Amino acid sequence: MKAMVAAERENDLDFEGFFHGEYERLLRAMVVLCRNRAEAEDLAQEAMARALERWDTVKATTSPLAYVYAVALNLHRSGLRRAALAIRHRPADPVPPEDPGSIVSRRHDLLRALRSLPRSQREALLLVEWVGMTSEEAGRVLRIKPASVRGRVHRARASLRERFGGLSDG
To answer: Which of 70, 98, 112, 151 is the most buried (most CB within 10 A)?
Structure first.
């Protein structure tokens, strides 16, 4: 009986009366739910705005109050889902830029390592690894057989690996 009287009273209200009577309570509930006043205000305001857009339909329901709470809760849940999705699909944190000093040092180490190789191995390694030629193409440039290019590259890698922990064979 008490619920029916409340429902009849809600149906008799215009939106402005409903808003003034219920907004603060809705807002407090949303503050408790999301623990952020600004977000709670957004939820309560959006729920009330949607109720206003459909007021003729909403006031005819058994509880316009239940409608605005359901809208506010659904908005909150949707926001949580969007946030979780954004976290899952966010790009990886960019790698911080390297210290210019370490880049220069690494370049000097690489040049020293390459200079430590015999000229024939250094040339074969640079053509295959740096320029990206096949052993056949590098063989034509160096005027040697492709198998000889592969052998020189293999020996150059082994030498660098032994001395400097350098290039992998692969």
So the answer is: 151
DSSP string, 88-156: HHSPPPPPPPPPHHHHHHHHHHHHHHHHTS-HHHHHHHIIIIIS---HHHHHHHHTS-HHHHHHHHHHH
Token representation of residue 47: 């729920």
20, 94, 103, 105 from 97: Cα distances, Å: 55, 9, 10, 15
Q: In CATH, what class is 112-164?
A: mainly alpha
In the CATH hierarchy, which fold is given to the domain comprising 2-89? Rna Polymerase Sigma Factor; Chain: A (1.10.1740)
**Distance separating alpha carbons of residues 22 and 38, to the nearest angstrom:** 18
Alpha carbon distance 50, 23 (integer Å):
13
Return residue ranges of the chain for CATH 1.10.1740: 2-89
pLDDT in tens, 63-95: 999 999 999 999 999 999 998 888 888 787 777
- The predicted-structure confidence for 93-123, as pLDDT tens digits, reads as follows 777 888 888 888 888 888 888 888 999 998 9
Where in the chain is CATH 1.10.10.10? Answer: 112-164
